[in-house]
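#data-curation
PF: Archiving a pair of folding outputs for the training set. Convention for this channel: one message per protein, sequence first, structure tokens after, nothing in between. First:
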Amino acid sequence: MKKTFIAAFLLIVLVMSLAVGIVPAVAQPSSIAINEVMANPARVSDNNGEWVELYNPTTADIDINGWTIKDDYLDSHVIDNGEPLLVPAGGYLVLGNNDNPSENGGVNVAYSYYNPDRFTNSFHLANQGDEVVIVDLTDTVVDRCTYIRSWTGVSWSLKNAALDNTYINMNSSLSWYLSNAIYGVGDRGTPGQRNGYADDLTNETIDEVGDLVDNGELDSGQGKALSSILEVALGKIEEDNTSTATNQLNAAIKKIKAWMKSGKISSEDGQALIDAINNILAAL
């Protein structure tokens, strides 16, 4: 009887809260995730080159026609594609100001939300901080992120689409990083493609191995053997073959541990390499 009373009481509280609008919508990133944001392009104007990339981690295509992209203030645009606008299963879709690649910096934008009237069905990305909020047909916030500034000519990219993307830090973030990949006419980002954080970490680790060879901490044979494993892993990462990439990276760790045990590499240098490889594994 007591449990029934408590459940009924909680239901009444929830209904009353919804009625007065004090319960915020809860993001559901398992459906659609905001995966990359270009708020301040350098090679083209903001009106041409801004874009937002969505990622669908599910096994089914998701139609976002009729959904809304907005911020927390005046900007709000209802997507009206005239037909289904699908974010493919396990894939990406780019929304932007301009859907003409010859004008927008070389981006394949699937849908343009641009409206010259900023106060009518309009969405824009402010350079000094803004929000990106995705709302579905039931008025549920599917995903959102907030940034407090942009970087000129560089997109904010999720290190891993499974990470919490709610807040983009100005200088550093556990979830976001500044893209290193060049697209189109020279801005940096990976619109419509997998973000390259694991790729960047692998390349950095390969460079670290080269530095250890140059400094005499590893001999050339060791450096070649380890670099070869990492290069194979990098190729598999680029192919989205995370299983084989993981096997290769674990093989590299096993080799380093064997060298540490035999004294062929110092514990300090060996552990630094293992930590770097573990960071790659975490990014897959």
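PF: Second:
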Amino acid sequence: MSAFEFQLFDPKLHQLSFQTRTGETRVGEHLSQQALSTAKYVLLGVCENAGPRANMGRQGSENAFIAFMKVFFNSQHYEGSSTDQLAYLGLIQQVKQPADQTEATAFVQELDALLMATLDKYIGAGQIPIVVGGGHNNALPLMRWAAQRGKLSVVNIDAHADLRPTDQRHSGNSFSFALQEALLVEYGVFGLHEAFNNSFIRTQLASPKVKHRFFEDYLQGPHQLYDDVLGFVQHQHHAVGLEIDMDAIALMPSSAFSPSGWHLDQMRTLLLKLGHIRPQIAYLNLTEAAPNDEKEDLIVGKALTYLVRDFLRLHR
């Protein structure tokens, strides 16, 4: 039995859940009418925890996209809204829980193949996928898919470089595999926490293909995240994948929860500033959020909603 299934959204067969109010149009109503073929941005949810479990992370990443849907589909759509060019593709659902870490690793490999096949089948030329939910393991199939279309670099806002050894697949080694497979021209990872990146990872950071800065360097100054990220993106003359690991945001319910990190508004500002330089974006991956109760659902749902809506403003 497969551990995952892809559920294609068909408005004739499924209704999105959102509240209605006279005189208002909700995003869920707009997405119910938006044709996939004409959209610039395509939203795909991933409900899985195999990647974080294989990496000994906190449970809950399987809940992030559902928490996001509850808020995002109820947010406002209006003429000229950033959601104008967005379509909803559907979601990949984990339907079986791994018995142990070894089985979780096998699940991740299965998910790698399914996610890449889904992107290959449904994302057309010029379209930009937005992937919400699951672990950072999903960065690898996204990079494999994007690298098929041309040169690719990736910028990652993350407390962890995800450059662990490639002996087994999990949420902590997507970028090790990407460098090993020569998928990337450059990898930029910014905001790393010194205490949680080991000696092996630090050796990987010395690669000429890797640009990085630790969070502690930002705290001391004079470095600024916005300067580093915008400088990295402007230096690329090809498509850039954009990764935001939600564990980089302080107090965000995530697979590697931390009281130290960026504020949500700093991440929002970064996305809005990217819009000023109008970069060629390959995809957006919002990953590792891991809510486990009603309050955490609301925090994660609203945070992801703000970030997606801000990202959609990039090419307005």
